Amino acid sequence: MVPLEWYIGLSAVIFVIGAIGFMIRRNLIIMLVCIELMLNATNISLVAFSHYLQDLRGQIFAIFIITVAAAEAAIGLAILVVLVRNKGAVHTTEITDMKG
Amino acid sequence: MLPVIIFAYFAISTTILSVLVITRKNPIHSVLFMMALFFHIAALYLFLNAEFLAAVQVVLYAGAILVLFLFVITMLNLKWEVAYEPFIEEWPISLAVGLSLLLLVFFTTMNFVKGPIGQYTIEAIKSETNTKILGKVLYTEYLFPFELASFILLIAIVGAMVLAKKK
User: Fold this and answer.
1) Where are the domains of chain B?
2) Tell me, which fold does domain B1-83 have in CATH?
3) Model pLDDT for residues A25-70, shown as the tens digit of each residue
4) Mutation target vs A (from B103, B163, B167; most A CBs, 10 A cutoff)
5) Could you tell me which of B83, B103, B86 has the C-alpha nearest to residue A28?
6) CB contact under 8 A, B118 and A59
7) What confidence category does residue B86 fall into, taking pLDDT thresholds of 50, 70 and 90?
């Protein structure tokens, strides 16, 4: 039997890869994909907890996370389309209007 | 021994695929690697006795969300993207921050203490099937969060339409 800690470790590795990707990429589409990656990593750990602690709440939470991820992808891509239409840019380095 | 080998395969391939996702220059390649990654994660869910979530993962993530991503990428026509340097100039700092985060999480999980065992044993789930018992919990104990989730989806639909409408 695979111990629970291995699943948590795998989830942590994928989460950190997603976080690094979010920080190092210029492209906004890839940044949105990286958010999906991080949400999937949390889903893995939630389902693993749900299996090993014999409680279904983890799977319920995973369903909610998938719902929120779908909403987030829809809104994020709509914002992206508007951004490209108005400024013709998908790179974070080109979008500096707010001087952040 | 066999579960360990299967888990090792899925762990290594998910890690490699997620690294490929964040390093490819072409966004289409990234998203297609992401699709392979989602299928691997669905297999991991099957491995954890979460059949319904595995199906949802394939149908919703690989079938709906990623197709939305592909649709937007092809619509925006990002051919020129491949010529650009994909990473920001300060990428070593971000990498260091991420790796220290990983170290932090590993040290935290080393001190992890298991909570009390719940009531849904494998036999209890087997007697009623995973989907049925999940539905029972979702529609009784988590009815209010479920309604809130539907509201979030409604807002997402309206928001996407309002944003994409041409002025």
Assistant:
1) 1-83, 117-167
2) Four Helix Bundle (Hemerythrin (Met), subunit A) (1.20.120)
3) 888 889 999 999 999 999 999 999 999 988 888 899 999 999 999 9
4) B163
5) B86
6) no
7) confident
Per the listing, tokens 């709440």 go with A57
Domain ranges of chain A: 4-87
Put simply, the answer to whether B102 touches A13 (Cβ < 8 Å) is yes
Place of tokens 């999980």: B109
pTM here is: 0.91
Q: How many CB pairs under 8 A join A and B?
A: 219
Taking CB atoms and an 8 Å limit, are A78 and B159 in contact across chains? yes
CA distance A50 to B110: 19
Token couple for B13:
């391939």
> DSSP of A32-89, one letter per residue?
HHHHHHHHHHHHHHHHHHHHHTT-THHHHHHHHHHHHHHHHHHHHHHHHHHHHHHH--
Integer CA distances (angstroms), B60 to B2, B24, B54, B66, in order: 30, 24, 10, 9
What is the CATH code of the structural domain delimited by A4-87? 1.10.287.3510
Choose among B7, B15, B30: nearest Cβ to A6: B7
User: Min CA distance, A35 vs chain B (Å)?
Assistant: 11
Put simply, the answer to whether A14 touches B15 (Cβ < 8 Å) is yes
